[in-house]
Amino acid sequence: MEEKIIEEHKQGEALVLEAKEGNTKKLFIESYGCQMNFSDSEIVASILANQGYNTTQKLEEADLVLVNTCSIRDKAEQTVRKRLEKYNAVKKTNPKMKVGVLGCMAERLKSKFLEEEKIVDMVVGPDAYKDLPNLLQEVEEGRDAVNVILSKDETYGDISPVRLGGNGVTAFVSITRGCDNMCTFCVVPFTRGRERSRDPQSIIEEVNDLASKGYKEITLLGQNVDSYLWYGGGLKKDFKNASEIQKATATTFAQLLEIVASAQPNIRIRFSTSNPQDMTEDVLHAMAKHNNICNYIHLPVQSGSTRILQEMNRQHTREEYFQLIDKIREILPDCAISQDMIAGFPTETEADHQDTLSLMEYVKYDFGFMFMYSERPGTMAARKLEDDIPEETKKRRLNEIIALQQKHSAYRTQQFVGKTVEVLIEKESKKSDAEWSGRTPQNTVAVFPKENYKPGDFVMVRIDDCTSTTLLGEAVGYSEK
Ligand code: SAH
Ligand code: F3S
To answer: Is residue 241 within 8 Å of residue 208, measured between CB atoms?
Structure first.
């Protein structure tokens, strides 16, 4: 199932945008990790389009190679190291090529990167992309360049990302940056800095712009979307003594959802990610009220054991999570729910692991992203807890979690058989060029014969069969959207 993430996010595939006339330099940019990185790369490509760069898919002809990196697990960092080896090999035939590292590894390793990896000319953290023109100037003059300064107000709200690399149907719009939650295992608060919310006005403008370009589905993106709060910019902590007036005029996540959903009633709205501790009931009511907000919640829990949740600094118990699940089922009966799980967090006992399995049994998630614990330098868990679960045990527990998830996914897809569901067509099916692939509001992939439909169409599909991850059916007409 971990594979699924990789598939969805096209890890490491070079982003290609429409060429801008007059640009002569060639940029090869590829991304690893979360959706936010992919979204950031579009911002970077947009900044560089104004610096004379057009994108290329050929590493061999690039003047500038940028890799947007992920630090979330050790494996993610190893993947990037391997890519740097590849760049090294290519540089032998293309000596003019410059290499820049972006994203979380850049932020985590800072100038150490320049010492550890000779191929790297430039290190740029996630809040410093607007400095790229200056940094490039340095590099062109033969100096190494580093900017890893984190910001308390940068949201790139004023940059409109160029998105011609995608399917033209679905797009991401970032609404917050950074994270203040400090889960003890997680490197994100260190690499992406403090949480900032983006001005709702600039969010709406981007959404309207995407709609006018024919996009049909928008995912509002943030590490922790439910804590979105706009009261004029800056960090929340600076507003501790904020007057009631400020609070009264603030925009919450539920309100933002409603604004976006009402502004574009014919466009599907999704959001990711929700941390259970920050999700409020008004979000569920907003979802119930607006048909175009998809009934799907990615609600990572990480563990089913209250003791482990505490060690992880997740601010809820197992029971509180169940209450939230019950609320979702009550307000949104057909809502799909997915999880992230970590197997083998320090001190995790067999009983804790059983708690995770029994929690899964209660929720029966539609799908999930499951990982072995990977100690990240500098995090609270790394400093305070010994990584004491043997690799073999982590692996076995992970496999048990994955096996149970597969059973539940199969159960969930089976529930759709015999029903007719709305599918937004995104692209050709990977398995057959005679079939379209799209997703239901619940985010389940559906595949069916093309007939005369096309990507971007909302189609009603009768589901006749399924696998544990995919619905198989036949289109019976357009949706009444
Ligand atoms: N709120 C974020 C979470 C980012 S990390 C979001 O937008 O999704 C994504 C997932 O990676 C986490 O939910 C967690 O399950 C996993 N993860 C994070 N740090 C990890 C670590 N040190 N080891 C293993 N998995 C980790
Ligand atoms: Fe990481 Fe927890 Fe934030 S998983 S991104 S610190 S909500």
So the answer is: no
Give CA–CA dist 443/268, Å, rounded: 11
pTM for the predicted model, two decimal places: 0.93
Asked if residue 381 has its Cβ within 6 Å of ligand 1, the reply is no
Are 351 and 455 in the same domain? no
Position in ligand 2 atom list of the atom nearest CA 314: 2
221-273 residue pLDDT tens = 999 999 999 987 666 655 555 555 566 678 999 999 999 999 999 999 999 99
The verdict on residue 61 lying in a domain is yes
Any atom of ligand 1 within 6 Å of the Cβ of 186: yes
Q: Is 185 in the pocket of ligand 1 (CB under 6 A)?
A: yes
Across the beta sheet with 336-343, the strand order is 296-298, 336-343, 367-372
Tell whether 181 is covered by a domain: yes
Q: Are 360 and 404 in contact (CB under 8 A)?
A: yes
Note the pLDDT tens digit of each residue in 15-58: 666 677 788 899 999 999 999 999 999 999 999 999 999 999 99
Number of domains in the chain: 3
| pLDDT tens per residue across span 424-454 | 999 999 999 999 999 999 999 999 999 999 9
C-alpha of residue 72 to centroid of ligand 1, in Å = 6
Is there a single domain that holds both residue 260 and residue 391? yes
Boundaries of domain holding 282: 170-414
